[in-house]
# Entry
Amino acid sequence: MQTHCPNCFDTIEADAMTCPACGCAVLFWGRALSETERLIHSLGHPDRAQRLKAVYALADLPQSEAALPLADLCFAAPGDVWQAVEVIRTLAAMPAVERVEVALARLALEHPAGPVQTLAAHALDAKFGGGDGW
Ligand SMILES: [Zn+2]
# Structure
């Protein structure tokens, strides 16, 4: 049975102690990281289901450090509108701080998908209020 290395996401045997690709000690990877840092790292996972798990977990753990990496995820996979919708939901659950505003503004102004722009603009307006030019 195979799984992904938690560090580099290469495919490895499920019982591997170290990753043949990057050399990390699989069982001990991430111990020095916070839960938020591990979840932000997981936004780069090649498996979409694993990325979405991280997006959902970040919504339950509203840490604004993840705001800009979450926006980056939407630009890395611009055709995945549903993933972007889940990202916007997570951003809307975060504290109303500047980096959350910047992340939503980037999605509202620069995302190539119209529905994502519209949803991000609504979330921005609902969270940061109104009529200041966004
Ligand atoms: Zn690895």
Remarks:
- The radius of gyration is 17 Å.
- The first strand starts at residue 2 and ends at 4.
- The first helix runs from residue 35 to 42.
- Residues 5, 7-8, 10, 19, 21-22, 24 surround zinc ion (CB under 6 Å).
